[in-house]
Amino acid sequence: MMSTHPARSKAPPPEVPEESAAQVRRTDLARLGVLHDLLRVLNDPLAGAQQIALHVGRLPCLRARVTRRFAERLPGRTIPSLPEQVAALGNRALEGILLALLEDLTELRAEIE
Known about the structure:
This protein has helices at residues 26-29, 32-42, 49-56, 60-73, 82-112. Helix 4 (60-73) crosses helix 5 (82-112). By secondary structure, the protein is an all-alpha fold. The chain has one domain (22-112). Helix content is 60%, strand content 0%.
């Protein structure tokens, strides 16, 4: 008996974003709440990669930076889902990415003001 359900095709694996996708923009300055939420989750010892990835994914430039770092650290590997990238990189690497992002946002704000 044949199934009447349509075949589900898997989504293509994520690709490494261009460097321009990782750059901060003026609109990112209005999303600082996302970073505050992420910092709260990173301070929660019970938070897992899935929860962290939910917040990382809310800020496109941060998501791009995480994926680019994953590709740098693990060259030749297929890019997995964001939670898997977060788990593979670990909190220390993520905190380093976040610190660089905060510095870039600070510089952008200074340029604008």
